Structure formats: C-alpha cells, structure tokens
C-alpha cells in the first residue's frame, strides 16, 4: 500500500505547485452594507446538536480497499441509524482515500462536490524498465488539457472527452514502479492515464494502487475511518458526544471551496422558498466572483442557505442597488428558520419595510 504520509511535495521531481484551481484563488470580502444578525433566529453551524448534524452534516471518510462507495455509504447509515446518506465521487472498490459522505438533507450538497477538482497518489507499474528521463519527459504530455476516452469498465458513456490535469509530480521511480501525485478535473480516469502513459513510453503500464487525497475541500489531512465513526457513535450513545462532533462536520464544510455571498436576515426566508437573490439582499461577498460561477449563499451566522449561479461579477454585486445577483439552484435551509420579510403600510400610505 502506498504510504502517502511519507510523501513530501519538495521531492516532486516535476516540482509543480500542488494546488487545485480553487486553492490558488485569493479572495477578499467586499462589504456592501454593514449589518448584524438577529441571534433569536438561526444558529451558527458549529453550535448544531448531534441530532441536527445527523440531518445537516458531512463526514470526510477514508474509504478502505474492498467495498464499493455505495456500500460504504450504506455502512455509515447503519452505524448512525439514519435513513439517508450519499457519497461524492465514486471510488472503485480497490481504490482508497477521501470519500465525502453527506447525511440526511445535506445529501444534495454532493452536486457541487462532484464537479470539484480531485487529487490522487498513484503507483503505476510499467511493463518493462525504461530510462527515468523518458518517464519524466512523457509525464509533461499529461499536463494541461488532455483528451481521454473512459475505460471499458466505467460508469459513463465511452466517448472521447477533454479533461484538465492541473499538476503531476513524480516522487519516486524504482525499477518498473513509478509513484506520482496528480491533481485533475473531476471525471478524470487515473487508470486510463497510466494506460496511455505506458502507451506513450511504448512499453505498456497499468495502475497498481490509487489513493484519493483531495476531493474539493476535503483532504487526507483530517479524514476518518469507519472504525472511528463506529467508536464515536458508541461513545455518543453512552453520553459522550465530543468524538462524534469532531467527525460529523457541518454541511457548510462541503462548500468551503466555493465563493460566497452573505445575505441580510430579511432575505433568508424568500430564498428558502426558492426565490432568486437580488442585490438589495446582499450584505457582503467574496471578490473574484465571475458571472456564471457557482456560489454559496450564506447567512451572517455562516449558515448555508442555498447555492446557485452568479448572474453578476463581484464588482457589479457590490456596486449595483438593483438587479438579479444569484439564481437559486439547491436550497438547504428550511423555510421559517428566519422570519418572513413583509411590507407594511404606514399611516401616510407609504410602504414601510418590517419583519
């Protein structure tokens, strides 16, 4: 088994920066209008109870070798005694590593995780020995935009498609084995990379071992095992919830990689009913949002209300007093969490805004 704890990025022989696209973006918070949140409504994600986390939580699981991703999701459901759990980014039975699990009503969050970048550590076995310099040279042909046809055993239609490789570092070559780390666009097949790499070398190659070390914002730095989950749940049943609270993370962790727009309390309930977000409802937002980016819409307490598609760039959202800012796609917050925003007629017949 590949011991990824021994890998040191400084030893990557191609010496590429090991960051997925979202990790390279430095965002500032732009304040559109100063506002405070009413503590009588909603709740900071870190203050949720275990019961609430079981319905609005995510787990960063280290998938073991053997079971399918669906089986792992089912095991977690049974351990926790819940009716629904979903995983993001299926791993083959023999592949291990980061497998985000979303619990209860948070399962819809896998949609944004599926599209996020991934990172893997792979042990490739060459069918014959070749000069190391040739391996390094051909590696460069797999960086950037590549054309790839999914392998015979795959869950998608077998047609050639474009995928982007963000970085590829070779860590060690020993005989016929090459150990490398690769950061890539979602939907990239690493075993096909190995096959095509061997073809380029003219000797053939196959994927021997594979560990996923990043799936969007989830990494190998804080993953847990099914045994950890089971032990923590047993402690919880005995009255100690601390271990389980460290394992079940608020669902907001699943959108940590997305740019964010924070809204006024008065805008929350209409979004909970599926309305789109207009600029008057915005309190602050991240810089570097481009039109058509997927964004997470948050309360001022840091709760995820929904995610959607930006219809303006950051500068427009911050500067315009009217207009459609974000179209809503998936809503996570329950209606009624924040009070409805209504217009009330004052004695002079002018519309006055109130809760």
Features:
355 residues; alpha+beta; Pseudouridine synthase; Archaeosine Trna-guanine Transglycosylase, Chain: A, domain 4; 10 helices
Count of individual beta strands: 19
Task: Provide the number of structural domains.
Answer: 2
Main pleated-sheet profile: 10 strands, mixed
Average residue-wise pLDDT:
91
Q: Which of globular, elongated, flat, extended, rod-shaped describes the shape?
A: globular
Q: What is the distance, rounded to the nearest whole angstrom, between the alpha carbons of the first and last residues?
A: 59 Å
Low-confidence stretches: 4-12, 345-355
- Secondary structure class reads alpha+beta
At the fourth level of CATH, the homologous superfamily of the largest domain is: Pseudouridine synthase
Per DSSP, what share of the residues sits in E-state strands of 2 or more residues? 25-35%
CATH topology of the largest domain: Pseudouridine synthase
Q: Report the top-level CATH class of the largest domain.
A: Alpha Beta
H-E order: HEHEHEEHEHEEEHEEHHEEHEEEEHEEE
The radius of gyration is 23 Å
**Quaternary organisation of the protein chains:** single chain
Summed up, the helix count is 10
The CATH architecture of the largest domain can be given as 2-Layer Sandwich
Percent helix, as a range, is 10-25%
């Amino acid at each position: 088994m590949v011991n990824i704890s021994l890998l040191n990025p400084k030893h990557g022989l191609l010496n590429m920066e090991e960051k997925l696209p979202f990790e390279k973006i430095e965002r500032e918070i732009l304040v559109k209008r100063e506002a405070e949140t009413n503590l009588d409504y909603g709740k900071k994600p870190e203050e949720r109870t275990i019961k609430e986390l079981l319905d609005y939580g995510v787990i960063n699981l280290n998938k073991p070798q053997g079971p399918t991703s669906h089986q792992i999701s089912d095991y977690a459901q049974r351990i926790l005694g819940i009716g629904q759990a979903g995983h993001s980014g299926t791993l083959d039975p023999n592949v291990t590593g980061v497998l985000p699990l979303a619990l209860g009503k948070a399962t819809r969050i896998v949609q944004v995780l599926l599209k996020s970048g991934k990172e893997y550590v792979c042990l490739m076995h060459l069918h014959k020995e070749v000069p190391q310099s040739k391996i390094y040279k051909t590696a460069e042909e797999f960086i950037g935009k590549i054309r790839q046809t999914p392998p015979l055993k795959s869950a998608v239609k077998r047609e050639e498609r474009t995928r982007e490789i963000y970085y590829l570092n070779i860590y060690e070559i020993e005989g016929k084995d090459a150990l490398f780390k690769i950061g890539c666009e979602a939907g990239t097949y690493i075993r096909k990379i190995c096959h095509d790499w061997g073809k380029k070398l003219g000797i053939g190659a196959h994927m021997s071992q594979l560990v996923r070390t990043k799936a969007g914002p989830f990494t190998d730095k804080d993953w847990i095992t099914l045994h950890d989950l089971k032990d923590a749940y047993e402690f919880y049943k005995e009255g100690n919830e601390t271990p389980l609270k460290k394992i079940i993370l608020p669902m907001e962790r699943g959108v940590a990689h997305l740019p964010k727009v924070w809204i006024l309390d008065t805008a929350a309930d209409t979004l909970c009913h599926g309305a789109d977000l207009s600029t008057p409802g915005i309190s602050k937002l991240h810089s570097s949002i481009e039109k058509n980016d997927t964004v997470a819409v948050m309360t001022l307490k840091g709760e995820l209300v929904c995610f959607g598609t930006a219809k303006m760039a950051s500068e427009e959202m911050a500067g315009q007093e009217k207009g459609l800012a974000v179209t809503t796609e998936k809503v996570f917050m329950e209606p009624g969490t924040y009070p409805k925003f209504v217009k009330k007629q004052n004695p002079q017949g002018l519309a006055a805004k109130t809760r």
